[in-house]
Amino acid sequence: MHASIRKYKVDPSQIDEVSRRVADTFVPRVSAVSGFVGYYVVDAGNGILITVTLGNDPGAVEQSAEIAAEFVRDELSEIEIERVEAAHGEVTVSQTA
């Protein structure tokens, strides 16, 4: 399994709107990617959003990163949002309940 983790800085007053748009528009797009496993958004406070995308292979998470960049550019252009960090790689430890 592979993961893509992105960190965004968002105006704190716009967190709810960003989350709504992500749920309504981005999630359906990324979940259609072949090899998609899961997607999570974490409100880390102080205007920081962290996203985690899981995929069965590197191609799935790389494609999710491309879709995310397009989504931010096309769907969030009027919202003050900045991707401040991104990384992807192989998941080396995984445990679920």
Report what the structure shows.
By secondary structure, the chain is an alpha+beta fold. The protein has one domain (2-90): Alpha-Beta Plaits, CATH 3.30.70.100. 36% of the residues lie in helices and 38% in strands. The chain contains two helices and four strands, in the order βαββαβ. The chain has helices at residues 15-31, 58-75; strands at 2-10, 36-45, 48-55, 81-90. Strands 2-3-1-4 form a four-stranded antiparallel sheet, covered by helices on one side. The longest helix has 18 residues, at 58-75.
Write the SSE topology:
Elements: E1 2-10, H1 15-31, E2 36-45, E3 48-55, H2 58-75, E4 81-90
Antiparallel strand pairs: 1-3, 1-4, 2-3
Which tags fit this structure?
single chain; globular; 36% helix; Alpha-Beta Plaits; 97 residues
CATH architecture call: 2-Layer Sandwich
Strand order of the largest sheet: 2-3-1-4
How many individual domains? 1
Query: How does the overall form come out from the CA principal axes?
Result: globular
Helix content: 25-40%
Let me know the number of strands.
Answer: 4
| CA-atom Rg in angstroms | 13 Å
Provide a concise account of the structure shown:
The protein is α+β, with helices and mostly antiparallel strands and 97 residues long. It is 36% helix and 38% strand.
